[in-house]
Amino acid sequence: MNPSAALAILAVVLAGGATALQAPTNARLMTAVGSPVNAAFVSFAVGTAVLGVLALVLQTRPDLTAARGLPWYAWMGGVYGVVFVIAATWAVPRMGVATTVTLMVAGQLMLSLALDHFGALGVPKQPINLTRIAGIALVIGGVLLARRG
């Protein structure tokens, strides 16, 4: 495995760990601010501040000309993040972190399979096959086991 691929794997695994931390952190915040929407708002405000500092430190400059030419769906990432954060914030006190995150991963995998298969949103086409379906079935089985335990 080349170093770039290893770094990408490590980054994604750490991001997954951050997701597991984010859900109970925001659930705890929800108890103080009164709703999952308020908790998401605070979470995104803090995240926006951190991103602003990172942009300044890294001296990144957006290409606004290129950004204007993007399709509408390229602007929707924040909306998906809102859905994710509110759902996780609301679900963790009801189902626990493991079940919430496992269900979210199952949903991510199911939609990812379809996006890959059809090459939607500009991703390279990767057809559905039995191996990929089996992998998702194992995750869904994991959801059921985590929920039972």
Automatic annotation (TrEMBL):
Range of residues in the leader sequence: 1-20
Pfam families: DMT_YdcZ
Domain of life: Bacteria
GO cellular component, one term: plasma membrane
Chain ranges passing through the membrane: 36-58, 70-91, 97-115, 127-146
UniProt keyword terms in alphabetical order: Membrane, Signal, Transmembrane, Transmembrane helix
Annotated protein name in UniProt: Transporter family-2 protein
